[in-house]
Write a structure and sequence with these properties.
The protein is an all-alpha fold. It has 15 helices and no strands.
Length: 393
């Protein structure tokens, strides 16, 4: 896969994190503009998550029937129009609906970028490309809130959505001019009437499901960290709010660095081999984090080290798990990518909610969820590896 295609797919993969992280600094200003509180503004985030879950499952069968390019252009176009509608929302209800529609369009890039990689690459090459795309996934949480805050303070919250409009319009143009259809002409076009049956067959595929859930459960640990870290760092350990971004960014930097190291290691070892070993690092770091938080130490640094290792190891786990799940999917790559994203997102969202359910005023709930995710990821990875070897690959 050439550099131009990777850059375009990187921009498409950025739709999800940008549309979430970019507008978070605008919550107070938006609450003031609509005469409500931040809790009600958070419903726009819930609407976006709902749209992501529904939209991913819809795009898979459509992509397997009509190819990757046309659904991708339609999805990016919907995202562009909805972003513009968000910028000029006259009330909160309008914004909630527009955010839902925005997610329906934005998830096209998430689903179809994986399908396009699967069309053009084998398992090792796919893992390398996914590792490179992790650079975008890691940078977005660092840069988006800072840029969003700058836009809110300078021009107002509406400019967050206007910038998203321009970004997605540019991405649509890049897809139109520089990203040809990737689905091989020899692949049979799957009928839409068989979509449920296709998902049923994928759910019965133990190797696909095992790899998808290994990556999803590991990602769930990251969502638990995202949900719990503001309280742990700012409220519990007294880190100034303006310094929180540096701690968050350092962990994201570890994620990015390991993802790029993973791309190099794949030249010597396959993605399944690296996945089966990296999940153990994730588990051991998670158990170390749980041990540190159980001691209720007043020092922050003992907690930061195992947490850094946990998040950094995901830079190897997530791309390799995705590549293994997508390997050999062929004509049903669109449906496989959609189900992969839906499963991973659903499990990750549940983990972030569990941190709130277990809240006890300490860092233990966050650490507990992360360590349990590590234990489940190791178990799934080991079992799936045996199933994979039994198939002869």
């Amino acid at each position: 896969m050439n550099l131009r295609s990777i850059l375009i797919l990187g921009a498409l993969s950025a739709f999800g994190p940008l549309a979430i992280d970019f507008y978070l600094p605008g919550f107070p200003a938006m609450a003031l503009a609509f005469g409500t509180d931040e809790q009600h503004i958070q419903t726009t985030l819930a609407a976006y998550f709902l749209g992501l879950s529904i939209g991913q499952l819809a795009y898979g069968p459509i992509a397997d029937r009509f190819g990757r390019r046309v659904p991708l252009l339609v999805g990016v176009g919907v995202f562009t129009v909805a972003s513009f509608a968000c910028a000029f929302a006259p009330n909160l209800e309008w914004l909630i609906v527009a955010r839902f529609v925005q997610a329906l369009g934005g998830c096209a890039g998430m689903v179809l970028s994986r399908a396009i990689v699967s069309d053009q690459c084998d398992a090792v090459q796919s893992a390398k490309v996914f590792s490179q795309l992790m650079l975008v996934m890691g940078l977005a949480p660092i840069l988006a809130p800072m840029l969003g805050g700058l836009l809110v303070n300078t021009w107002g919250w509406q400019w967050i959505f206007l910038i998203l409009t321009l970004f997605s319009a540019g991405a649509a143009l890049a897809v139109y001019l520089g990203l040809p259809e990737s689905m091989p002409a020899s692949h049979p076009r799957q009928p839409l009437s068989g979509a449920l049956g296709q998902y049923g067959r994928l759910l019965k595929d133990r190797v696909f499901l095992g790899h998808a859930m290994t990556g999803g459960i590991a990602m769930a640990g990251m969502f638990a960290y995202i949900a719990g870290s503001p309280f742990v760092f700012i409220k519990l350990y007294g880190v100034p709010a303006e310094h929180y971004g540096w701690l968050f960014g350092s962990n994201a930097a570890g994620f990015i660095i390991v993802a790029q190291i993973n791309a190099r290691l794949l030249s010597k070892r396959g993605p399944a081999h690296l996945l089966a070993r990296t999940v153990w690092i994730y588990l051991l770091a998670g158990l170390g984090l749980l041990a540190v938080t159980s001691l209720h130490t007043t020092a922050l640094w003992p907690l930061l080290l195992p947490l850094f290792v946990c998040i950094a190891s995901l830079g190897c786990i997530i791309p390799n798990a995705s590549a293994c799940a997508m390997n050999g999917q062929g004509a049903r790559a669109g449906s496989a990518s959609a189900l992969l994203g839906c499963l991973q997102f659903s499990v990750a969202a549940a983990a972030s909610a569990m941190v709130g359910v277990l809240y006890d005023g300490s860092a233990v709930p966050m650490a507990l969820v992360i360590s349990v995710c590590g234990a489940l990821a190791v178990s799934l990875a080991m079992v799936t590896r045996r199933w994979q070897l039994a198939r002869g690959f």
